[in-house]
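Give me the fold.
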Amino acid sequence: MQRVISRDEPRPKGNINRETRPDGSVWLEASKRQQHRTMAPQNKKLDVLDASELLRPEPAFTTKPVAQYRDFSIDPTDPIKERVRKLYIDMHTNQTVDFVKSRHDKWLKFDTFKGTIMDVLNRLSDSGLTDQSDPDVDIPNVYHGFQTAEGIRREHPDKGWFQLTGLIHDIGKIMALYDEPQWAVLGDTFVVGCEWGPSIVYRDTSFQNNPDGKHPVYSTKYGIYKPECGLENVTMSWGHDEYLYQVLKHNKCTLPEEALCMIRFHSFYPWHAGGDYMHLCNQKDKDMMQWVLEFNKYDLYTKTDDDLPDMKELTSYYQTLIDKYIPGELEW
């Protein structure tokens, strides 16, 4: 359950419209675009509102201080931070409208291989794939899926579909085993074909060599889209989120729409944490955001290099959920 800020508590700087829904969930809407995380050295205080602070869980839910998650500050002496920064420079240089179209042409034929969900999980486990865009952990990414699923299971024991979503949300990263560069598989996503959101990590320095920034249409606020067109009608930068979303739709899985939204947009931090792209959202997107935010606290705050889950022990439980919602062999 997300913590609702009391009306008696001091309000943070900036204007936030807050609505508590009948089911206890919270909808927060920034009245202006607000930066989610700092891109300057930590000792420099920025006068910005971090809307995600209102959604962070109590410290007991995490394995380290919440402010230490998603630290994208620049430190040339830190090899992990430099690895992350360089990956985002490659991503933001190369993720253009034309590039994304080329990835659709390649991957959305669904003719790369056939395999079950568990086949893909096992292949990712055997590969030892690590997420080069992640500043929080440096372990094989497959552990993160089980950590997320188990976090959801503890707090939502009655929602098997939600637990399964946590388990599989990153398995689109299987593309990395087919020679797709990590900058086209991992990391935060954003909309292509319009102005880049201001809260994108390294926004001010990483897009300098992306040709879409000089395009007469792609560089404008709405670009190729119409106001409130809905996120289902935009083109996202290419990565594991979009790929898995498209795979599940193609193979007619029976996960609910909320799950598919979580999968497609869980890395869309400029939207669900930064408040960007709201001018493209319709009411459905705003309603769905509460589910993405609920998912995000498990996706982000269950990460740890320690206390790794016993994947073999958990396999039989999650196989029953796979059989219910995404059975059999899929086309990838």
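Residues 1-62, 133-137 have pLDDT under 50 and may be disordered.
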